[in-house]
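Risk register update: the risk of archive-format incompatibility is retired. Evidence:
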Amino acid sequence: MIEIDYYMSHGSPWTFLGHERLLAMVKNFDVKLNIYPVNYGDIFPISGGLPVSKRPPQRQKIRLQELERWSKYLKIKLIPQPKFFPSKSLLPSLVIIASKIKNTKKEFVLANDIMNALWVEELDIDNEKTLFDIITKIGLDADEIMSLAKTSECTKTFENYTSKAIKNDVFGAPTFIVEDQVYWGQDRLDFVERHLNELSKSE
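Archived output:
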């Protein structure tokens, strides 16, 4: 079966902008999606990346322009500078991982709703009550998911995902890997779709 490895960050607007388009692709081509929340705080130092606040002024300026262009083009009401950005906690990613470990089949939806809370609703996703409400709204046991998210099992899985990302040359969010091809950025989803189309024809 065709697979997509999806390396994402809950605090990345670019991840959010491509998230639902990726899901549509997965459904259209009937492929397996492996979602990997990873720690870009560990990835950036070894790949030449910088957090937004440490990037040169001109790069920060163009980033905001690009976010406005893309959100308008995709008709997503993303706020380029939301009140609670950047997210300073790893808990939102750990919650997504906990959902995956519990085999809820809702980790993709959960990730979308967490990012929507940050980038559209301007909610504090580092706040446990905010996360609790998001988890509950999609029909999961929030107490169970939150408890698991705080365990060493989730932390270790998060570390393993991050190590896997580094091994596979991931340096930015989002990154999609199909076979041996690495696609960085939501603006590369057209190439991902072409790749999937080629693979589906050869099956």
